[in-house]
Amino acid sequence: MEEHMSERRDPTSRIHLCDCNRSFALDAGRLAAGTDAAMQCHHALCGAELPALQTSLAGGKTVHVACTQETALFGELAEEAGAGERIRFFNLREHAGWSAESAAATPKLAALIAAATTLADPEPVAAVQMSAGRSLLIIGEAGAALGWAERLAGSFEPAVLITARSKDVELPAVNAYPVWSGRPVRLGGHLGAFELEWTQHNPIDLELCVRCNACVKACPEGAIGWDLQVDVDACRSHGACVAACGEIGAIDFARQDSARSERFDLVLDLSAEPLLRRVELPDGYAAPGRDPFEQALAVQALGEFVGEFEKPRYVAFEAALCAHSRAKKTGCSNCIESCSTAAIRSNGDVIAVDPYLCKGCGTCSTVCPSGALSFQYPRVPELGQRVKTLLAEYARAGGTDACLLFHSAAAGSAAIARLARRGRGLPARVIPVEVWSADAVGLDLMLGSLALGACQVAVLAAGSHDAAPLEAQAGHGQAILSALGYGGEHLRVIEADADDWQALERALYDWAPAMTVAEPARFRLLAKKRETLDFALRHLVAHAPATTTPAGLPAAIALNAGAPFGQVIASDACTLCMSCTGACPAGALRAASDAYRLEFVEKNCLQCGLCEASCPESAITLEPRLLPGEYGTEGARRARALREADIFHCTACGKAMGAAPLIESMIARLSGHAMFAGEAERARLRMCADCRVIDMMKAETAVKAWDLTE
């Protein structure tokens, strides 16, 4: 087919587009005008026109192919040509071409081509090394657990913990693997390093038992089954089994040391109620329940975890920004409460993230108000650059009312593909943006995208374990935008998957465009969450439609609980003890240097609640809100007085003693003590330390040393 290229041809790369047997339209001329690279359009690149791709690969150029269906075929050709590192794939067919609005999709096609061919690969993410051997713990009722242990003994190194009796089940005749009995207490750890703690409640210690079955035959009540478990309710303590066991000493009804623990690489939990109850179970742990078919599938899956693995360290943590706790007072626990894998725990004043358990949903970074947790796969700056490129090229090609659709790489892509194949496809103005996990799309990315020129931002929650945090973030953002005068609905979370692609179609086609910012911002989204929010809000406020109305910008925008903006309110009960200033992790509360005054910088406030938890007078409450005026000028980060008090002076010498409310509060509390029962004692509380001693000496009636004579 005809080759198209721009006047500024890039000789180092070549783009191959394909309309997949003419199933959608490609305006080659308009698309080529937006790129520096030579571009070729095809009808059957994977068939009759395959030699064109082979020629490009042999020419030493970086080759971009707009087809993801035939990556195996094209990748094999690249390897044969020694060009495996020089071929890139991107999707135009499902993302833009297969659409009821395909004729109007050229601006979106141009944007997708620009992003795929001009952006550098993301910086590598730090990796977590994991390894697992064949040590497999099987937990459950004797029959099922021993049955699977026998089947798997040739491919794993099994160990069995029997948790329930099966009287007629016999232990294996060959002692080829450990068998214990007991009650699980705690299962922790991760793939390759699971640790189980249990209590040995069976009087027969199966580690010492030689399985001679003498105890079974000796028991007059038949309380010992062939599984060598003792039915303590049937046992009458005759001691016949102990005598039969003899010098082996495996039976002890008075055992004191019952705590046991072992480490394993993998765990097959056959219990009716799983030991781990989490939304996302750790790799290497399977809890299929009692269904034999599900158990077989679980065993097959566990076999895939044997070996050495590497996975991204999805989240970065900056302890200095964490607002979790101070002085044993808990503030923000959003990340702990939202983590689906139990990978985040309290660790003193901060939190700790276990990278071995983390599966990269990113919800923790979304709900973190300070940015102490930041998602790395991809990083916000890299994702922001992609958004900026997409929006700029879309506008250059004549597109309007751009709507960004953030979606996960797996479940989200599957839903979009199903919509393209069976429904109307994505609208021409909807630009898909792939991320590892849609749960990591926080308020900074939402508002930042709108400031960069997007009309709307949608998050496809396919694959999300809980869309509530996303809904909350979108709610905060929409409240701010509506109050600033931006008409319409700008933020939407769409709960749909591949099986419910019709819901995605309805949500996108029924969504009327909203008001766009008059001038797209030029800044880049930054790694620090609060800085990105600051830039985005400054731009949105500066161009807010409300500024042109008679009413102007609102003085304050009310937000729902959980918003990362707001004010602190100090009631009259505040004594200016300043406990809150020491607890505040963001410098929002501070003590004035020139007076007894509590000052507040609202722009710094995270609404973490540490000040509220630390206040001994219960005088502090939080009010989520946003002050648009704080983002109007460069010098808007100003402090205001929350509470100010007079100085309390010593009643004897006039020396300054501290803030009057604090001293009065102290006096009120001590006045009821027996040491201050008299008026004179209570009066001394209003004196400084020196005057208090002098007054006590004057009132002393005992004989003094200087009054003594020989």
From TrEMBL:
Molecular function (Gene Ontology), one example: metal ion binding
Pfam families for this protein: Fer4, Fer4_10, Fer4_9
Keywords: 4Fe-4S, Iron, Iron-sulfur, Metal-binding
SUPFAM superfamilies registered for this protein in UniProt: 4Fe-4S ferredoxins
Residue span(s) of domain 4Fe-4S ferredoxin-type: 200-229, 349-378, 565-594, 596-625
InterPro entries assigned to the protein according to its UniProt record, in alphabetical order: 4Fe4S_Fe-S-bd (IPR017896), 4Fe4S_Fe_S_CS (IPR017900), Fe-S_Ferredoxin (IPR050572)
Protein name (Swiss-Prot/TrEMBL): 4Fe-4S ferredoxin iron-sulfur binding domain protein
Annotated source species: Thauera aminoaromatica
Lineage, opening ranks: Bacteria, Pseudomonadati, Pseudomonadota, Betaproteobacteria, Rhodocyclales
